[in-house]
Protein backbone atom coordinates (compact mmCIF):
# COMPACT_ATOMS: atom_id res chain seq x y z
CA UNK A 1 0.00 0.00 0.00
CA UNK A 2 1.29 3.44 -0.74
CA UNK A 3 0.08 6.95 -0.09
CA UNK A 4 0.44 9.74 -2.61
CA UNK A 5 -0.43 13.38 -2.55
CA UNK A 6 -1.52 14.96 -5.81
CA UNK A 7 -1.76 18.75 -6.02
CA UNK A 8 -4.70 19.97 -8.12
CA UNK A 9 -4.62 23.79 -8.13
CA UNK A 10 -8.11 24.11 -9.65
CA UNK A 11 -9.80 22.60 -6.59
CA UNK A 12 -11.74 25.45 -5.02
CA UNK A 13 -14.87 24.17 -3.27
CA UNK A 14 -16.80 21.25 -1.81
CA UNK A 15 -18.18 20.36 -5.22
CA UNK A 16 -14.64 19.70 -6.44
CA UNK A 17 -13.99 17.64 -3.31
CA UNK A 18 -17.12 15.54 -3.84
CA UNK A 19 -16.52 14.86 -7.52
CA UNK A 20 -12.85 13.96 -7.19
CA UNK A 21 -13.33 11.76 -4.13
CA UNK A 22 -16.34 10.13 -5.79
CA UNK A 23 -14.33 9.35 -8.92
CA UNK A 24 -11.29 7.93 -7.10
CA UNK A 25 -12.91 5.84 -4.37
CA UNK A 26 -14.58 3.26 -6.67
CA UNK A 27 -11.33 2.54 -8.53
CA UNK A 28 -9.93 -0.95 -7.95
CA UNK A 29 -6.94 -0.71 -5.64
CA UNK A 30 -7.95 2.60 -4.06
CA UNK A 31 -8.27 2.20 -0.32
CA UNK A 32 -9.03 5.82 0.57
CA UNK A 33 -9.17 9.17 -1.18
CA UNK A 34 -9.62 12.55 0.43
CA UNK A 35 -9.44 16.09 -0.88
CA UNK A 36 -8.24 18.99 1.23
CA UNK A 37 -9.80 22.06 -0.37
CA UNK A 38 -7.64 24.59 1.47
CA UNK A 39 -4.39 23.11 0.18
CA UNK A 40 -5.92 21.82 -3.12
CA UNK A 41 -4.34 18.47 -2.35
CA UNK A 42 -5.71 15.00 -3.01
CA UNK A 43 -4.40 12.27 -0.70
CA UNK A 44 -4.83 8.71 -1.94
CA UNK A 45 -4.05 5.42 -0.22
CA UNK A 46 -3.77 2.74 -2.86
CA UNK A 47 -2.33 -0.62 -3.79
CA UNK A 48 0.30 0.12 -6.42
CA UNK A 49 0.12 -3.45 -7.74
CA UNK A 50 -3.48 -2.78 -8.78
CA UNK A 51 -3.59 0.89 -9.78
CA UNK A 52 -0.84 3.33 -10.76
CA UNK A 53 -0.36 6.94 -9.81
CA UNK A 54 -0.75 7.81 -13.51
CA UNK A 55 -4.20 6.20 -13.49
CA UNK A 56 -5.15 8.20 -10.42
CA UNK A 57 -4.04 11.40 -12.15
CA UNK A 58 -5.92 10.41 -15.34
CA UNK A 59 -9.09 9.92 -13.30
CA UNK A 60 -8.75 13.42 -11.84
CA UNK A 61 -8.13 14.86 -15.32
CA UNK A 62 -11.27 13.04 -16.55
CA UNK A 63 -13.21 15.04 -13.96
CA UNK A 64 -12.07 18.21 -15.72
CA UNK A 65 -9.08 19.27 -13.64
CA UNK A 66 -5.56 20.04 -14.72
CA UNK A 67 -2.87 18.18 -12.82
CA UNK A 68 0.50 19.93 -13.28
CA UNK A 69 3.45 17.54 -13.54
CU1 LIG B 1 -15.26 23.50 -6.91
Could you tell me the mean pLDDT? Answer: 97
Question: What is the CATH class?
Answer: Alpha Beta
* Percentage of residues in helical conformation: 25-40%
> Radius of gyration, Cα only, in angstroms?
11 Å
Which term fits the overall shape? Answer: globular
CATH topology title: Alpha-Beta Plaits
> How many beta strands in the DSSP annotation?
3
Low-confidence stretches: none
CATH architecture: 2-Layer Sandwich
Largest sheet: 3 strands, antiparallel
What small molecules does the structure contain? copper (II) ion
**Beta-strand content:** 25-35%
Discrete helix count = 2
Q: List the domain count as a whole number.
A: 1
Structural class: alpha+beta
Structure commentary:
This protein has 69 residues and is α+β, with helices and mostly antiparallel strands. The protein has one domain: Alpha-Beta Plaits. It contains 2 helices and 3 strands, in the order E-H-E-E-H. The chain has a 3-stranded antiparallel sheet with strand order 1-3-2. Strand 2 (30-36) and strand 3 (41-46) form a beta hairpin. The longest helix has 11 residues, at 14-24. The structure holds copper (II) ion (CU). The site of copper (II) ion has 4 residues, from helix 1.
